[in-house]
Give the backbone structure.
Amino acid sequence: DIQMTQSPSSLSASVGDRVTITCRASQGISNSLAWFQQKPGKAPKSLIYAASTLQSGVPSKFRGSGSGTDFTLTISSLQPEDFATYYCLQYNSYPRTFGQGTKVEIK
Amino acid sequence: EVQLVESGGGWVQPGGSLRLSCEASGFVFRKNWMAWLRQAPGKGLEWVADIKEDGSEKYYLDSVKGRFTISRDNAQNSLYLQMNSLRAEDTAVYHCAGNWVWGQGTLVTVSS
């Protein structure tokens, strides 16, 4: 199975900050990586697929990058609605596997 | 608007069975792979099973193989998950997903 190591597990940031979350795959997954945002009590929402392609309707302040084993989600100018938990998902092979999640909290 | 609505969750004793359903709308269901995923209380996300557009290929998490069966009815725009021999560790909110959209989920509680 491919292990997805996501870091940090949590972070505190202020409104307006730029935030970076990383995901490392235990083996190469090409660009078969997606990022999801989840707010308490809500279903996950897809932000990015194919490592860097923004889902329709997702603001451009979310940016994904990387290929192979190392991936990054960057949120520029954090807003109150961005405080949530973020997960990466590899869909290069089965079983599909998620990172452990990064909780972004208000400083 | 893409919508996925799950139903069929509830409380069941260990060893019992449940059948989850997911009704899809707002996209061409028959042209999309579909999936079931779950989230145990206070835990992260976990993929459970995938099914190809025509149902000809199915993939499962090792821990549910032989106990869970994913299926679909393209005429009814519906996805299903038959869960047998349920264990306490299967307790979670189960979400269906397709076209990069997730449903709100249905809670399955396995407890004596």
